[in-house]
Amino acid sequence: MSAEIINGKELAQQLKDNMKNEVTELRDKGITPHLTVVLIGDNPASKSYVKGKKKASAETGISSDIIELPDSTSEEKLLQLISELNNDPEVDGILVQLPLPEHIAEQKVIEYIDPGKDVDGFHPVNIGRMMTGKDTFLPCTPFGIVTMLKSKNIAISGQHVVVIGRSNIVGKPVGQLLLNENATVTYCHSKTKGLKQFTKMADILIVAVGIPGAIGADHIKPGAAIIDVGINRLADGSLTGDVDFEEAKEVASYITPVPKGVGPMTITMLLQNTIKAAKGRKA
Ligand SMILES: NC(=O)C1=CN([C@@H]2O[C@H](COP(=O)(O)OP(=O)(O)OC[C@H]3O[C@@H](n4cnc5c(N)ncnc54)[C@H](OP(=O)(O)O)[C@@H]3O)[C@@H](O)[C@H]2O)C=CC1
Ligand SMILES: Nc1nc(=O)c2c([nH]1)NC[C@@H]1CN(c3ccc(C(=O)N[C@@H](CCC(=O)O)C(=O)O)cc3)C=[N+]21
């Protein structure tokens, strides 16, 4: 038996089609959601993600612009720009593409963004609201993952979720969101001893490590749902996840592919958050 594939690209398209109608209605009322993306430096991967965000915005009628600045941009100059965007009444959402150059303190920049415009959901105020179960901007990748699980009616409540990875943008918040949905959550990371003994207990296994092939069939409990967050570019230019897909799909009940899995959902949730920001500010 081969696992059912959760096609994130298709689900993202359905959600964008719905959003397009919502944006049309908002625009008829004179409200055009606007997203500003700030891109520092010329990391090719970041450039390609940012292009994807612009394209997806246009598809739904959300207006967007990209502010590109050189690698040499000072922290002070970036904070100044954020302060202008915070005060610009036309701007609903601000996204500063990560990672930032080494000389800029990432956390300081994140905390400078107006929480009401923080469509990434990375500001400590929004993280705190998420942790306490309040309405807020949910971080896009975790929000996308929960949306994918729900789209397939995969049970979350009472299930054992194992998350591999504890970054502030993926691992930690996805565990928190699933805890809010009444899952029992275990976190694993690079210091975890005996990783397999944990992963084999997972009803839902979320892999956000950044190592191709980190997880194989022998890590997986038969019938588990596997969410592969990893985006790794191989030497031949192709993209691959953290899970050995061919092997894993023979053991799992559901699995997300890379590409066309979690990635497109991340962008779609960003658009959702931008609409929410516009409604919160302009409506
Ligand atoms: N699809 C999407 O939309 C997105 C995809 N990504 C991708 O997801 C992956 C993870 O991203 P991100 O969370 O930002 O990455 P980070 O590099 O910030 O975090 C990686 C995590 O994996 C853990 N880890 C590393 N090696 C091992 C190991 N051998 N065993 C167990 N755990 C390990 C690390 O542990 P420790 O904390 O101890 O160092 C860390 O917590 C990347 O491939 C990234 O490109 C990221 C964002 C969005
Ligand atoms: N402030 C900030 N917010 C982010 O949300 C953010 C970030 N910084 N930095 C980098 C990570 C990574 N990320 C991805 C988004 C979409 C795809 C995506 O759409 N991937 C496609 C493939 C795209 C391609 O072919 O290149 C897919 O998986 O099918 C991947 C990765 C957002 N991130």
From TrEMBL:
Tetrahydrofolate dehydrogenase/cyclohydrolase catalytic domain boundaries: 6-120
NCBIfam families hit by this protein: PRK10792.1, PRK14186.1
Encoding gene per record: folD
Annotated keywords: Amino-acid biosynthesis, Histidine biosynthesis, Hydrolase, Methionine biosynthesis, Multifunctional enzyme, NADP, One-carbon metabolism, Oxidoreductase, Purine biosynthesis
Subunit structure: Homodimer.
Binding site for NADP(+): G165, R166, S167, I231
Residue ranges occupied by any Tetrahydrofolate dehydrogenase/cyclohydrolase NAD(P)-binding domain in the UniProt entry: 139-280
Gene Ontology, cellular component aspect: cytosol
EC number: 1.5.1.5, 3.5.4.9
UniProt pathway: One-carbon metabolism; tetrahydrofolate interconversion
Reactions catalysed according to its record: (6R)-5,10-methenyltetrahydrofolate + H2O = (6R)-10-formyltetrahydrofolate + H(+); (6R)-5,10-methylene-5,6,7,8-tetrahydrofolate + NADP(+) = (6R)-5,10-methenyltetrahydrofolate + NADPH
Phylogenetic classification of the source organism: Bacteria, Bacillati, Bacillota, Bacilli, Bacillales
Annotated protein name in UniProt: Bifunctional protein FolD
Stored PROSITE patterns: THF_DHG_CYH_1, THF_DHG_CYH_2
A single MF term (Gene Ontology): methylenetetrahydrofolate dehydrogenase (NADP+) activity
Organism of origin: Virgibacillus phasianinus
Any single GO BP term: L-histidine biosynthetic process
Domain of life according to the entry: Bacteria
Function text: Catalyzes the oxidation of 5,10-methylenetetrahydrofolate to 5,10-methenyltetrahydrofolate and then the hydrolysis of 5,10-methenyltetrahydrofolate to 10-formyltetrahydrofolate.
Record bears the keyword Repressor: no
